[in-house]
Write a structure and sequence with these properties.
single chain, alpha/beta, Rossmann fold, N-(1-d-carboxylethyl)-l-norvaline Dehydrogenase, domain 2, 2 domains, eight-stranded mixed sheet, 8 strands, 45% helix, 13% strand, globular
């Protein structure tokens, strides 16, 4: 599978686009309008120094070649015209994902394999909307894909085993370590571990138990971890905890979502990729 289309060019979508292009794939970056797509050159300029510092063998020439393998389009039919594989990275809401895949299923070539990058939703809740559920599964990336390079591959009961293995192979080809998940699990492996941890940290802040800086400091010192939970929130980006928390059954998580919106999102402090989230990254 050489031709990839990525639906959604936010923090993680743009990382998937760049990583696949760096790995010699031809990539179409799709988003809703040209104004959104106009932000992509700035994302590439943010990612280039990260690759130079953190990816062995990265050179300015290789990074420039990667950018040359990326084409942007706000026309969905055009974006899908020659896709071997589609990875969807739209907002983490079931209704948005279902409606997106309903459109994709009508427009994509018969050859195309379909993947969602959803971090919490089950493939079986989306697959019927694609019109070809046997070709649909999840391929979930961790944030900062060039270094935290797991690719969680999770099908649903109707996924064709050959498609499952082809997607696992594709993940390896773009530098991921395929993690084969044998049974549908909300949160897969990574987020089954990570989300309760981040929720616990959010509740400590909401209930004014400690500052986010001291919560991070406690975790780093006591466990030897390189980053604390609020540094992870900054890597993930503020829109994810907001979207997950605003309609939660848990009052603390709803309050945390409103806190994140009021104190960070409304100020344009969207996380590390935007130069500021809980922490100030100096405009990088």
């Amino acid at each position: 599978m050489q031709n990839l289309t990525v639906l959604g060019t936010g923090v993680l979508g743009s990382q998937i686009i760049f990583q696949a292009a760096y790995s010699d794939k031809q990539v179409v970056a799709y988003d809703l309008n040209d104004e959104i797509l106009g932000n992509l050159p700035a994302r590439w300029e943010y990612l280039k120094p990260r690759y130079l510092a953190e990816v062995p063998g990265a050179t300015p020439e290789k990074l420039a070649a990667a950018v040359g393998r990326i084409r942007a389009s706000s026309d969905l039919a055009d974006a899908l015209v020659d896709a071997d594989i589609v990875i969807e990275a739209v907002p983490e809401r079931l209704d948005i994902k279902q409606s997106t895949w309903e459109q994709v299923g009508k427009l994509a070539p018969e050859k195309t394999n379909f993947c969602t990058n959803s971090s919490t939703l089950l493939p079986s809740d989306i697959a019927p909307f694609t019109g070809r559920p046997e070709k649909f599964l999840a391929l979930h990336f961790a944030n900062e894909v060039w270094s935290k390079n797991t690719g969680e591959v999770m099908g649903h009961p109707g996924t064709d085993p050959a498609v499952f293995e082809a997607v696992a192979q594709f993940a390896a080809e773009i530098g991921m370590v395929p993690i084969r998940i044998h049974k549908e699990q909300p949160g897969y492996v990574l987020n089954s571990l990570l989300v309760p941890f981040l929720n616990a940290s959010a509740k400590l802040v909401v209930n004014k138990v400690a500052s986010f800086e001291d919560i991070d400091k406690t975790w780093r010192i006591a466990t030897g971890a390189p980053v604390g939970p609020f540094q992870i929130y900054d890597i993930v980006g503020m829109m994810t905890p907001y979207n997950l928390g605003k309609d939660s059954d848990d009052a603390d998580m709803r309050e945390f979502a409103e806190f994140v919106k009021r104190e960070y999102i409304d100020k344009g402090w969207l996380g590390k990729g935007a130069g500021r989230g809980f922490y100030d990254y100096g405009g990088q």
